[in-house]
Automatic annotation (TrEMBL), chain B:
<feature type="transmembrane region" description="Helical">
    <location>
        <begin position="149"/>
        <end position="171"/>
    </location>
</feature>
<dbReference type="InterPro" id="IPR000515">
    <property type="entry name" value="MetI-like"/>
</dbReference>
<keyword id="KW-1003">Cell membrane</keyword>
<feature type="domain" description="ABC transmembrane type-1">
    <location>
        <begin position="16"/>
        <end position="209"/>
    </location>
</feature>
<dbReference type="InterPro" id="IPR035906">
    <property type="entry name" value="MetI-like_sf"/>
</dbReference>
<feature type="transmembrane region" description="Helical">
    <location>
        <begin position="191"/>
        <end position="214"/>
    </location>
</feature>
<dbReference type="GO" id="GO:0048473">
    <property type="term" value="P:D-methionine transmembrane transport"/>
</dbReference>
<protein>
    <submittedName>
        <fullName>ABC transporter permease</fullName>
    </submittedName>
</protein>
<keyword id="KW-0812">Transmembrane</keyword>
<keyword id="KW-1133">Transmembrane helix</keyword>
<feature type="transmembrane region" description="Helical">
    <location>
        <begin position="20"/>
        <end position="42"/>
    </location>
</feature>
<feature type="transmembrane region" description="Helical">
    <location>
        <begin position="54"/>
        <end position="79"/>
    </location>
</feature>
<keyword id="KW-0472">Membrane</keyword>
<feature type="transmembrane region" description="Helical">
    <location>
        <begin position="85"/>
        <end position="108"/>
    </location>
</feature>
<dbReference type="Pfam" id="PF00528">
    <property type="entry name" value="BPD_transp_1"/>
</dbReference>
<keyword id="KW-0813">Transport</keyword>
<comment type="similarity">
    <text>Belongs to the binding-protein-dependent transport system permease family.</text>
</comment>
Amino acid sequence: MIELRDVAKTYPGAGRGAKPFTAVEDVSLTVAAGRVLGIVGHSGAGKSTLLRLVNHLEVPTSGRVLVDGRDLGALDGRELRAVRRSIGMVFQQFNLFRSRTVLGNVAYPLRLAGVSRAGARARATEVLRFVGLEEQARRHPEQLSGGQRQRVGIARALATSPGVLLCDEATSALDPHTTGEVLDLLRRVNTELGVTIVLVTHEMDVVRALCDEVAVMSGGRLVEHGDVYDVFARPRHPVTEVFVRSALRDLPGDAARERLRARHPGRLVTVPVTRDAAASARLSRLLRAHGVDFTVAHAGVGEVRGAPLGSVTLALHGEDADVDAFLAGLTAREAARDATEDAPHGATREEAHGKAVA
Amino acid sequence: MHADWHTFWPKVVDATGETVYMVLVTLALSALLGTGVGLALHTTRKGGLLPSRLVHTVLNALINVIRPVPFIIAIVALSPVTRSVVGTMIGTDAAVFPMVVVATFGVARIVETNLLTVEPGVIEAARSMGAGPLRIVVTVLIPEALGPLVLGFTFVLVALIDFSAVAGTVGGGGVGNLAMTYGYLRFDTSVMAVSVAVLIVLVQIAQLLGNLLARKVLRR
């Protein structure tokens, strides 16, 4: 288990008279063993610094970091290095040793941990088999593709059987196909080996594909933290909203909305699709009850953590009175409002959903 | 009076031997000392493994003071120190002392510069695995920079052959001394030509060996 208690990291300003820079401010966060947490944020939001606080590659200016109950700030250099051996780390640029073979890279942390040469070789081979690179053992990193290099990076991080794996933008240097392979591997690391994973990313698709929980950073602060489905369904912070939209792509943008209005003379209404199957049934009943027809104008529904999530924008056809009655019923049932104005800035996703957009 | 080449060849061989001796002894000592200073310079820099502004500033200043001094001036300026350390101001051993002093700081800068080519991320990776500073220097920093380091030391080796010839002209032994005393002072063009030829061959051999070794290390 990882516990961050009110951690902050401030860097002294570079040069004379420069202002100190606060990268992370008062963040408290707990990650239970066996969980996969994604930390998202725009660049400069402090997420990479936050990750480095977990293994004390960066020492917090204030606050405490506890890993399995041990306060890292209370340890001396030797003890801290021992704890780091129980926390693997994977990097965006892989950071493999060019002077060593693939096997040598994976064996390196084992040698550090005092494992014999033969023992390190055996264990490194075993881990390389797990990531599917046993045959590449004698090659050098520059002879491998990006995806293979990252798998070597993961194998190296797992060599000492750590309970925690920290991933710093582990897929950001990879193409979409290779990203998928690396994410599949990380999922196996979590499910088959039971390793707790904390990963930093700016891609919400990575969070959606892999994480149990998501934490959102903005301006050095933790602005949102929760179960991935809940955060996707009901983002509370504007920054979170932006990230969720980037992954779901379900709501028409301003320009798309103009085109929809031009194309569909009737009223447009956007209704959410969630794991609440009864809601869809109610919508269907309501349409029939008021004799309202529809055309699907825009839609984006996909799976988040195995459950459907997204929204559908319908163009309504029927008598004005019927449409009004339908919308009134929808409003009452779905906590949606009939409104012709656009959603106010910063409105929660819930408000934006179930709302007539024209 | 020009050299009688039947009896002069052994002198050339001896002088070449002296030059090789001076160069190799200097290379060994300056590589040892210079690598130490270069590592200290690299590790104490801001954001380094063992940051120390004081140590870094002092070493940096020392290098910047010694490096611009022309070698021939350094030999003369250091001669009192040479006498107290080596016991004499002339001969091969007396030439080695200023060569080591000057080369040490040259090597230090070359080592520091080449260590900077190692990606900080690789060092961070080693730290994340629980490696301590000394361990990182020995198992990551030096191996990762070995290719450029070999080329850097080759450059130093060639420079030392040059240094040894300069030292020869002011009382050190070797091919430089031969060229000075027989070739220059006695106007013997053939001795001068042979001396130059020997120096060229030595430099070629040094460069060839360095390139071969670097290619092996860099795997290209």
